[in-house]
Amino acid sequence: MSLINTSSPHLRQKLNTRDVMLNVIIALIPAVIASLVLFRFKALFLIAVCVVCCVLTEEAVTRIRNKPSAVPDLSAALTGLLLALILPPSTRWYAAVLGSVFSILVAKHLFGGIGSNIFNPALIGRAFLMVAYPKMLTTFVEPFAVDVVTKATPLALHKFSNQVVSTFDLFFGTVSGSLGETSAVCLIVGGLYLLIRKIADWRIPLSMLVSASVFSFIFYCLDPSRGTVFFHLFSGGMLIGAFFMATDPVTTPVTKLGRYVFGVGCGLLVMTIRYFGGYPEGVMYSILFFNALTPLINRCTKPRRFGA
Amino acid sequence: MIHVTEHKQTTHNLKSESFLSAKKLYLPLSQHIGKPSEVIVSKGDSVEESQLLAKSCSFISSNLSAPASGKILAIDDYFHPIYKRSQAITLEVDSSVKPKKYPALSDISALSKEDILEKVKQAGIVGLGGAAFPTPVKLVPPREIEVLIINGCECEPYLACDYRLMVEKLDEIFKGIEIVSRLISAKRVIFAVEENKPEAIKRINLYISLKKTELKNISIAVLKSAYPQGGEKQLIYSVTKRKVPPTKLPLDVGCVVHNVGTCYAIYEAVYCSKPLIERLVTFCGDALVRPRNLWVKIGTTLSELRENKLIEFKSDPVKIICGGPMMGVALDSLDYPIIKATGGFLFLTENTHPEPETACLRCGRCVDVCPMNLLPLEYVRKVKNNQFDLLDQSNIVDCMECGSCSYVCPARIPIVHYLRVGKRYKIDKG
Predict the structure, then answer these.
(1) A46 min Cα distance to partner chain B (Å)
(2) CB distance B94 to B22 below 8 Å
């Protein structure tokens, strides 16, 4: 009889890293379907390019770093999928390739690989492309269009030409915008799946959405032309950001109190950029900013010892 | 707290059986927290059942009595299920001597508090929930006790010895509770059971309602099943919402906790003058032909149980765990003896840690579940980086190694193991 002698506990929960990533991918399926319906071949093409490039980059980098293949944990595939969903449908292939490589190589592996990165890789990929191809990243197209018909996003229309898009369109996603961010209903369904399965902690999305709602409600009361609460919740990257970017385990606080701080902070910063910034949208920068603050938030929100 | 897979459906329904005829008994001198017992017999001596073999040698120590009549073969180093090795008395049982009878007194009202306490001390009773803290110490609290909590949670998966005791020996347990309650003059007694033990809850409720007049200050608290609710500080919080501060004791918040098995042992000591020489142990796991809840003599080895076909393997186990799967210790052979605080053994045919450790995601699940509100992932990082000096030393001692963090970790990091390395470093450094 040869007996294994390891230390306790001897029971483990089934959920592993791969399951976490897989469940996030599953939660993104409604948004992926919406993007395919709205933007057809462009969506399929972008998603395929980003996922394949991210996975290949991951494999290449882990080989160079002489580490076991990290592809099976699905984190690279997830990064690729998320990156595709936050790019404009008309993004050209070379930009998608560059963004994917930058996400995995720079934002993830230069910081030490999975678990060690400070910033959300998909958001860094997009931020990089914003700098590299500002025009391409701010040019959006009309959904269902056969030809490329450019159309500003609801937030841009609102900010720069004071036009308001109906909440109905925002809810179902029949507006211009990034691939996966337009359909509020699909993101909410996916987000609820994540929260109910306890894959993501509810504190960040809830506090982010609540703080943005409160802030926008106050401004709406002061000046109705600022847009309604629902307009701000359902437009731009608010929902995909709250449910899928701000819940990334690696780059967000580990303490419960810290998660509230992170969520509330993101919500306020998003609305501040939307109201007072030069850009019509601020979800990406808000989350990246709070990613940077995460170590500090962790340190300041250490839970009190039991009974202390 | 977390919900762990309970694995209790097989063990809960097994009626207790007995195996009290072991031929050789190995009795470690450290079966409790505190100083090892002091041997008062010598090699070659013939001893009678229940005769004192080793005595308590300080305030926190315990007596050890002979579980059977026989001859002392050796007083030497032997296997210990928790400490791996320790000094132990080897007793060769004389099977020609009839087992001793322990007739029960019908009434103990004539006994004074001092008499009762002396009986409990004599019997060598320790906390049978797992920690094995010498019980007499907890029966003379230096301050007033408001709540006596009886721990019937048994939150470790698989184990069922406390549950069987509550189902089969409830009358005796209640008599034990009355003794404790009288000794510490508790204002209230709360019998805490988790809701996954409906049969025990039914019986306790029935018992309390039948004896309403005598048991005025006793009530039952049915708790939602959670791990590690059987832990002393967690149980006190669940039942009373009082938090025991770090480095403080339950009595600092006016509480005392005793396990149901301990109450049963106190009953036997006081009513029957029987020392703690037997206990109920759960044997289970998928490697066994038949799981059992078995009364055995303290000191019986697993190999002897196997020779007597009380442990039979369907296929060879790859892992044997002494205790429950969350806090139990993996054993490397069948030569280990059962000691006072052994609640069960687990025989598993599958490696319970098949997946390799991967990178920490910093997802914070370990922080979410830590019942002591620690940051387990930080300890892991510091231990891995050899930053022992940075270990938050005052807090790492709060960890009771319940294993909740490792249980939920999706990266399969053996967090408790790293914590132990950190604690070890602290101990070695003094």
Answers:
(1) 27
(2) no
Question: Are B248 and A9 within 8 A, CB to CB?
Answer: no
From the candidate CATH numbers 3.40.50.11540, 3.40.1440.60, 3.40.50.450, 3.40.190.10, the one assigned to the domain spanning B113-272: 3.40.50.11540
Q: For chain A, how far is it from start to end, CA to CA, in angstroms?
A: 47
Cα(B38)–Cα(B261) distance, integer angstroms: 25
Q: Is A281 near chain B, with CB under 8 Å?
A: no
- Pair B365, A46: CB distance under 8 Å: no
pTM, whole model, 2 decimals? 0.92
Question: What's the pLDDT tens digit per position in A122-139?
Answer: 999 999 999 999 999 999
ipTM over 0.90: yes
CB contact under 8 A, B351 and A4: yes
Chain B nearest-CA distance from A221, in A, is 38
Nearest residue, CB atoms, A308 vs list B246, B368, B401:
B246
Asked if residue A36 lies in contact with residue A43, where contact means CB atoms within 8 angstroms, the answer is yes
β-pairing, B344-348 with B319-322? antiparallel
For A226-278, write each residue's pLDDT tens digit.
899 999 999 999 999 999 999 999 999 999 999 999 999 999 999 999 999 98
Q: Is A161 on the interface with B (CB under 8 A)?
A: no
Closest residue in chain A to residue B325, using alpha carbons only: A10
The full set of domain ranges for chain B reads 113-272, 365-429
Chain A CB contacts of B4 below 8 Å: 11
